[in-house]
Amino acid sequence: MSLHHILSLLIWGGITAVFFSCTPKNENLPINDPHSYSQPHKARVVHLELDLQLDFDQQQINGTAVMQLERQRGVNQLILDTKDLDIQAVQISDDGGNFSDTPYLLKEKDSILGAPLVIELGPATRYVSVRYLTSPGAEALQWLPPELTASKRAPFLLTQSQAINARTWVPIQDSPGIRFTYEARVQVPPGLMALMSATNPTSLSENGIYEFRMEQPIPAYLLALAVGELVFEPLGSRTGVYAEPTVIQAATFELAEMEEMMQIAERLYGPYRWERYDVIILPASFPFGGMENPRLTFATPTILAGDRSLVSLIAHELAHSWSGNLVTNATWNDFWLNEGFTVYLEYRIMEELKGPDYAEMLAALSYQDLAKEVIKLGPQSPDTHLKLNLEGRHPDDGMNSIAYDKGYYFLRLLEQKVGREQFDAFLRKYFDTYAFKTMTTERFVEILEKQLLKEDETLMEEIDIQAWVYGPGVPRNVPQAHSKRFEQVEAVLMSCMAGEDPQKLETANWSTHEWLHFIRHLPDSGSASLMTHLDQTFHLTASTNAEIQCAWYTQALKNQYEPAYPAIRNFLMHVGRRKFLMPLYEAMMQTPEGRKMAYDIYRQARKNYHPIAINSIDRVVGWVE
Ligand code: BES
Ligand code: ZN
Q1: Which positions are annotated as active-site residues?
Q2: Closest ligand 1 atom to Cα of 346
Q3: Mean pLDDT over residues 594-617, rounded?
Q4: Atom of ligand 1 at shortest range from CA of 404
Q5: pLDDT tens digits, one per residue of 486-514
Q6: Closest-lying ligand to the alpha carbon of 341?
Q7: C-beta of residue 621 within 8 angstroms of C-beta of residue 605
Q8: Which residues on adjacent β-strands are paired with residue 64?
Q9: In a domain? residue 87
């Protein structure tokens, strides 16, 4: 870009500042997002048209993003978020045809936020086109060689845009408060299927070209793409599952309750607004359990336990179709509005599906997670507030389980105080009123006080919103989960600790959750012989249930129970779900021998993980390349 162009951009920027006066009419008032450079109150993207060519050999996307804009009068520039994108050309158009070059400036890169792309607009510009290449290190993208897939026959690509990674594969206004509709055309090698958070194919395209549409406006963090050897199997009239051919049968069995979950969710929270709900079971290196990409939840294969015992994860991602995807957190500081609500909805769906005893186990485990997280972060830590302040930090660093578990308990407290009937009516209305809109914590508190609590002083004092939302730790009035099934587990645990023969323990009807409660409460050290007895009786090291494996292996590391080590290594080589990797690597880092083991495993396993997981584990083990 020439000096002339840079100068003209600077001058135009100055003129804008003088002329910018009117406030936007848009009722979705733009919010200042510390994790995006885009200035949506000046010019914002309302529709995106993507054209992507995927090069698996170079591990690169060659893309063109055409964006339709809404802008304020007098505003002459559009700012997009980018990170590690190689910008090839930028053009503008008034009517969507006849594009012509325009000056642009890719500013200096911030290590967290990436580089703002400032594009000069003409007086009547309504379309901007950006041609670009992604980089091999793009944080959203994981390019898997065939060996890392289930079938081991074809390569796989998966994206993870939340929280701020969309900008590493699409130049876009990457802020949860900015919504747009999209279309895409994706070209992939023959034999592979491409799927997005949009209308999806159910069979292979002969020429490797796929077309997509998302007609409901979504924020950039919900942009998603998966490409691989995939097949589709319907589950109900508007639900289905995609997976690799060798996984599809297990997936179909595991997810059979999905249609029923949808009916429950709709009964509780109003109509499902995204038409279809499908799930894709990804290769094991997917860094999360699930990701609520609209119309197509991305899920880890570690939920395929064979007995439908881990499907609450699907209830969770489905629930995001209301909390998160419909009513969206304005910035990542308001993350609890997405996740706390979703955990609450998840447990309500599971309560309808499996009964209150079952849901109460989930709630009790949630409390354990909350207590552990508060201890880990420190009871006074600002990171234990529901309303976060992540400015200057990578959102991933502050997005811990507080949003989920403290958020859940806050909503449970509200339900307890006003009664279920009133709370349900409130939530339903909330989702209707703010559908496809953005919500801040402050605005939610206002709505809560006015509409649910009717400004009743006594009630508001009892609840203490201030302490829950803007204060640290776990407030005193936290509701108690009562799980009868866990009380039975605790009795078994007592007799086990008292030396009872494991063969005689009453574990026959235990679900995964009872096992988790049991394993989590085993002693943290010096119990290798107890571990041996339990393992001989219950074959926990050989479990194929990833939740049980993670809990048991963590305990094995703490107790230096060596017979589990080969299985731990094997697990860490194949599974990339960050929630499982973190406690295992953290446990290994506690002792000198453990550290050796951690480096040794990580040296080989690192290449199997998604960049998001690598970022986290690098820090745990102090990895320097
Ligand atoms: N939206 C989250 C995943 C996420 C959060 C990705 C923050 C990136 C940044 C998803 O809905 C989620 O919460 N997944 C959980 C499972 C759930 C059952 C708690 C997970 O992946 O473990
Ligand atoms: Zn979630």
Answers
A1: 317, 404
A2: 18
A3: 96
A4: 19
A5: 999 999 999 999 999 999 999 999 999 99
A6: 2
A7: no
A8: 51, 131
A9: yes
Taking CA atoms, 528 is separated from 1, 163, 558, 564, in Å, by 66, 40, 9, 11
* Confidence tier at 625 by pLDDT (50, 70, 90): confident
pLDDT, position 5: 55
Pairing of strands 225-228, 193-196: antiparallel
Strand pairing category for 296-299 and 277-281:
parallel
Q: Are residues 411 and 443 in the same domain?
A: yes
Lowest mean pLDDT among 232-236, 354-358, 394-398, 517-521: 394-398
Q: What is the pLDDT of residues 5-31, one digit of tens each?
A: 554 444 444 333 333 333 333 445 567
Q: Which residue type is seen at 363?
A: A
Segment among 19-28, 96-105, 211-220, 567-576 with least mean pLDDT: 19-28
Domain boundary among 173, 196, 228: 228
Query: If you take atom 8 of ligand 1, which residue's CA is the nearest one?
Result: 162
* Residue 565: CATH number of its domain: 1.25.40.320
Tell me: do 397 and 287 sit in the same domain. Answer: no
Q: For residue 293, give the ligand nearest its CA.
A: 1
- Which of helix, strand or coil describes residue 538? helix
- Residue 398's pLDDT is 83
| Residues whose CB is less than 8 angstroms from the CB of residue 159 and which lie 6 or more positions away in sequence, other chains included | 140, 141, 142, 165, 169, 223, 224, 225, 226
Q: Give the count of beta carbons closer than 10 Å to the beta carbon of residue 359.
A: 21
Ordered alpha helix ranges (H), 448-483: 457-463, 465-470
Residues 58 and 207 in one domain: yes
| Strand order across the 296-299 sheet | 231-234, 239-243, 277-281, 296-299, 290-291
**Residue 29: predicted pLDDT:** 56
Average pLDDT taken over every residue of the chain:
94
Find the domain containing 307 and state its range. 230-311
- Determine contact, residues 132/63, Cβ cutoff 8 Å: yes
> Using a 6 Å cutoff on CB, does residue 290 contact ligand 1?
yes
Q: Using only the alpha carbons of the chain, give its radius of gyration.
A: 25
Mean of pLDDT values over 59-67: 98
Q: 359 with 346: CB under 8 angstroms?
A: no
